[in-house]
Write a structure and sequence with these properties.
heterodimer, A: 359 residues, alpha+beta, five-stranded antiparallel β-sheet, 54% helix, B: 379 residues, alpha/beta, three-stranded antiparallel β-sheet
Chain lengths: 359, 379
């Protein structure tokens, strides 16, 4: 029986479960494994918001999947044509059924959504695909093959090095080995690998690599998504007020049966002291502002007590690398780079959990 | 859908009779592929694991400064020019200015810094007197020399923020010459109990007297109970300067009884006294304090340290010759790697927080004090 078809059916069944699993894991992590907190999050966090966060955070994975499997499949087809059996191998089946426009779309999407430091790898994958495809489709046109598998990669490499050269040097000087390797290796590798590899090892190597990608990629996607902020980080200045505390309509306990400090907030700081609650803003209801503070404790702050609120910058987005290519930081995608950015403002003291100075 | 989406080659693929040249090319490609993939995979590991230095914000969180309303700093309260608690509840001196500088970097403006007087022997354990009890302060900036013995006692030092040396003072009426520690042989010499100076006194043959506060030593010198006082030059300079005016007429208030003119002696002490900040066991706090000192030392635009030096120490030099009060340049600080936005790296931030702008708002930091107070602009 067709093993590939069976595998494909299983894949299509399990694939939709993956994003759901990621979303649930993310909420579980956000609630620090507390079921009540997680249920509250599920109640308030919009599914559409979650899905868009997931999509935006992981859109880069689509080109990875298409291009990696596309290259491996075509490499297998060219190197060991007798072992390229779309009926038995999912890799072969996927390769044979992926139309060219999907590959082009994946390259275009990658160019927009991959960070600059990965763009040389994108160039490498795209040129490999082109060369492998040309060798397969037009083996009788040596000039064409030579043009696509040698002249084009060499030209691309020269161009890439002329653009990336200073950045590679900077990365080398700053001891950013990862950045240096990601910028320097792919253009050279493009020239090297535009044809078949020995037939005896091709099936094992391509399938091995495909399995590795299929195993590692979901883990990487999970790791990336677990760091994506789902809720806005906010600092809320709380000034407990007698009127709010005594007025039954504004008492937070009416909603949740919990005291004003929320579920298990521990000893409340002397109720009359103003404070700044720092954390993720879950929702603002008619009576209270619901905040998940840094210790993953949910706090229901009566709206009457909220003196002021401010959005705080997300820590996770500060770049690791100092390198930039002609003013384009290597950790920015083309989309980041093209779109307007919020002007930099001085950090607010409230974002450090401190009350603003003398008013 | 059931058919292959990619067209098939026009004819049968050429026979697999590859020449040895082709075979070699295939082998080279194989090796190249494996090497390139291995390198790229290795490069991806640190990126996926987000290995790298923390941000300033993460350090603040780890140091427990997020949500902290007040930074408590232990300082001396009886050392003119270094750190003095004035009767109007104002703290003034070089250590105080350095404290404000570090606090500003940590996000605390002047109103959020609380100074507590700390005794010499309490500096290692960061224990300061607060009204009726004792509290553990966040930082100790109290003319505290870095040395191994103190590290063993539990002090964790930042990088040094001032270099000075040991010196001695006597009454101006003293009729001898003091050009080395040995010249104090046979004299009763007072110093701080825990100071690094007192260890050297015994070796030199003087009769050391230990006191907890340097002002007590100076008072005993005025009263004739001791003939000399020795400790770090920067500390003694303030007592020698006493109420003599600075360029702009500022004077130290004299709180001791029966003050007499003093004389500062250069005893040719070679060991450098490197003053550091005791930051306690929290490594993140140490990193932040070092970062504050590093940025002050590196950033040409940031002249907070120079202003502090000019306002508190430089003008005293004339009254303390031939002893240098302290080295006029901020010592090199330890470089701490932090992740920053590119624009923050281009323009190193002065602590950009409302209410903490260091130089303009400071009454003690005088721009224009003998020039712009640039590093090494002095003698």
């Amino acid at each position: 029986m067709a093993g590939a078809r069976q595998a494909q059916q299983w894949l299509l069944t399990l694939l939709p479960a993956f994003p759901v699993l990621l979303l649930v894991l993310r909420l579980w992590q956000l609630s620090h494994q507390d079921m009540s907190t997680m249920l509250l999050l599920v109640q308030y966090v919009s599914p559409l918001g979650l899905l868009s966060a997931l999509l935006i955070a992981l859109v880069w994975a689509f080109p990875v999947v298409v291009l990696a499997f596309g290259v491996l499949g075509r490499l297998l087809r060219l190197s060991a044509p007798d072992r390229f059996d779309p009926e038995r191998s999912l890799l072969a089946s996927g390769t044979a059924r992926t139309p060219g426009w999907v590959i082009s779309a994946a390259v275009a999407l990658g160019a927009l959504t991959w960070q600059l430091r990965f763009l040389p790898s994108l160039l490498m994958l795209a040129l490999w695909l082109l060369a492998l495809r040309t060798r397969y489709l037009h083996p009788d046109q040596p000039t064409r093959v030579l043009l696509v598998s040698l002249a084009l990669p060499v030209a691309a490499a020269v161009l890439a090095y002329s653009v990336l050269g200073p950045a590679i040097w900077t990365a080398y000087q700053d001891r950013e080995w990862a950045t240096a390797a990601l910028l320097a290796v792919p253009p050279a590798a493009t020239v090297l690998l535009t044809g078949p590899i020995p037939g005896w090892i091709a099936p094992a190597l391509t399938h091995g690599l495909a399995f590795t990608v299929a195993t590692v990629l979901p883990v990487v996607m999970g790791a990336v998504f677990l760091r994506v902020p789902l809720l806005p980080t906010a600092a809320i200045e709380v000034v407990p007020r007698e009127s709010a505390r005594t007025s039954p309509a504004a008492t937070p306990a009416t909603d949740d049966g919990a005291p004003a400090e929320g579920s298990g907030a521990g000893p409340s700081p002397a109720a009359a002291d103003p404070e700044v609650v720092l954390g993720a803003l879950i929702a603002v209801t008619d009576t209270s502002t619901i905040v998940l503070d840094r210790a993953a404790t949910v706090r229901f702050v009566p709206n009457g007590w909220v003196e002021s609120q401010v959005l705080c910058p997300q820590v996770t987005s500060v770049p690791y690398s100092l390198v930039s290519v002609r003013g384009w930081p290597v950790e920015e995608t083309a989309l980041d780079w093209m779109m307007p950015r919020k002007p930099v403002a001085d950090p607010d003291v409230r974002c450090e959990g401190r009350l603003p100075g003398a008013r | 859908m059931s058919q292959a989406s990619e067209p098939s080659p026009p004819g049968p693929t050429p026979a697999t009779a590859t020449s040895s040249r082709t075979a070699r090319a295939r082998q080279i490609r194989l090796v190249g592929l494996i090497v390139a993939l291995a390198v790229l995979a290795a490069a991806l590991v640190p990126i996926v694991l987000t290995m790298g230095p923390p941000t300033r914000d993460e350090l603040l969180e780890k140091a427990g400064l997020k949500g902290k309303q007040q930074l408590v700093i232990g300082v001396k309260d009886d050392q003119p020019g270094i750190s003095q608690h004035l009767p109007n509840n104002v703290w003034k001196g070089f250590d105080v200015d350095v404290a404000y500088m570090v606090a500003g970097y940590l996000g605390f403006d002047h109103s959020q810094v609380r100074f507590l007087p700390i005794e010499s022997e309490d500096r290692a354990r960061r224990q300061a007197r607060d009204n009726d009890g004792f509290v553990i302060v966040d930082l100790v900036i109290a003319s505290y020399s870095i040395n191994d013995k103190r590290r063993e006692e539990g002090a964790v030092f930042s990088a040094s923020y001032l270099h000075t040396e040991q010196s001695a003072i006597t009454l101006k009426s003293f009729e001898g010459q003091v050009s080395s520690l040995e010249d104090l042989r046979g004299l009763t010499v007072c110093s701080l109990t825990t100071s690094t100076s007192i260890q050297r006194l015994g070796e030199a043959g003087a009769r050391p007297v230990g006191r907890n506060r340097i002002s007590e030593c100076v008072q005993e010198l005025y009263d004739g109970k001791v003939q000399a006082v020795t400790t770090d030059a920067a500390i003694l300079a303030g007592f020698v300067t006493a109420d003599q005016p600075g360029d702009d007429g500022q004077r130290f208030p004299v709180t001791l009884k029966n003050p007499k003119p003093l004389r500062h002696w250069d005893i040719g002490s070679s060991p450098q006294e490197r003053w550091g900040i005791n930051v306690g066991p929290n490594q993140a706090l140490r990193d932040l304090v070092d970062l504050a000192l590093y940025e002050s030392a590196q950033d040409k635009e940031n002249s907070t340290w120079e202003n502090a030096y000019n306002a508190n120490l430089r003008w005293q030099q004339g009254y303390n010759l031939p002893q240098p009060v302290a080295e006029q340049q901020q010592p090199e600080a330890r470089k701490v790697e932090v992740r920053q936005w590119p624009w923050e790296r281009i323009a190193l931030p002065t602590p950009a927080r409302p209410g903490s702008s260091p130089s303009p708002a400071r009454p003690v930091a005088r721009a224009g004090w003998r020039g712009r107070g640039r590093r090494s602009s002095g003698c």
